């Protein structure tokens, strides 16, 4: 039953992804992207990672998509009159090549092999959230702080560029 549910959610995710790419209206494309994000959250729940599922919904389906929809509505982007089929064909060829190379790397590599000292027992004993928090704020504190400083600089730069008069 779990496999059938996985395939159903995967089908919905792939169809939503296709709608994101092929929709003529940017708003419809953004809403299909929200649906794809929800499908990814379901995958996280199926992988017994409820914290990541909640973050997926709150950050991506919530905050990021609200920003994208505000930008779409502020720019007042209408429906494109027509697309050249050559661009769509080149995009499909490029996407297929990336998919085939990804499958090749996954089959020949050690991507699915578990590495590290965190086992299922450790996760059940300490919990997902505690392990993620420890990794982020103890083991990888410097990269986390560097990323936050870069985001702050980007926000300040966007405000300065958006300002009409100094």
What does this protein look like?
The longest helix has 26 residues, at 50-75. The chain has helices at residues 2-22, 26-46, 50-75, 85-108, 120-126, 128-139, 141-162. The protein is globular. It has two domains: 1-79, NADH-ubiquinone/plastoquinone oxidoreductase chain 6, subunit NuoJ (Four Helix Bundle (Hemerythrin (Met), subunit A), Up-down Bundle); 117-166. The mean pLDDT is 80. The protein is an all-alpha fold. The protein starts with a helix and ends with a helix.
Number of alpha- plus pi-helical segments: 7
Distance between the first and last residues' Cα: 61 Å
Global shape: globular
The helicity comes to: over 70%
Estimated radius of gyration: 20 Å
What is the fold named in CATH at topology level of the largest domain? Four Helix Bundle (Hemerythrin (Met), subunit A)
CATH architecture tag of the largest domain: Up-down Bundle
| CATH superfamily descriptor of the largest domain | NADH-ubiquinone/plastoquinone oxidoreductase chain 6, subunit NuoJ
User: What's the main sheet like?
Assistant: none
**Low-confidence segments, ≥5 residues, pLDDT <50?**
none
Total number of distinct structural domains: 2
Mean pLDDT: 80
Element order: H for helix, E for strand: HHHHHHH
Approximately what portion of the residues adopt beta-strand conformation? under 5%
Structural class determined from secondary elements: mainly alpha
The top level CATH class name of the largest domain: Mainly Alpha
**Annotation, overall tally of beta strands:** 0
């Amino acid at each position: 039953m779990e496999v059938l549910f996985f395939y159903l959610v995967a089908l919905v995710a792939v169809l939503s992804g296709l709608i994101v790419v092929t929709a003529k209206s940017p708003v419809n494309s953004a809403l299909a992207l929200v649906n794809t994000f929800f499908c990814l959250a379901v995958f996280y729940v199926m992988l017994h990672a409820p914290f990541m599922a909640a973050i997926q919904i709150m950050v991506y389906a919530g905050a990021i998509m609200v920003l994208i929809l505000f930008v779409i509505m502020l720019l007042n982007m209408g429906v494109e009159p027509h697309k050249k089929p050559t661009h769509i064909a080149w995009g499909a060829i490029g996407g297929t090549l990336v998919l085939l190379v990804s499958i090749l790397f996954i089959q020949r590599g050690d991507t699915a092999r578990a590495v590290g000292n965190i086992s299922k027992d450790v996760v059940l004993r300490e919990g997902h959230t505690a392990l993620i928090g420890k990794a982020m704020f103890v083991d990888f504190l410097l990269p986390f702080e560097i990323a936050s400083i870069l985001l702050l600089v980007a926000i300040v730069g966007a405000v300065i560029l958006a300002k009409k008069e100094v």
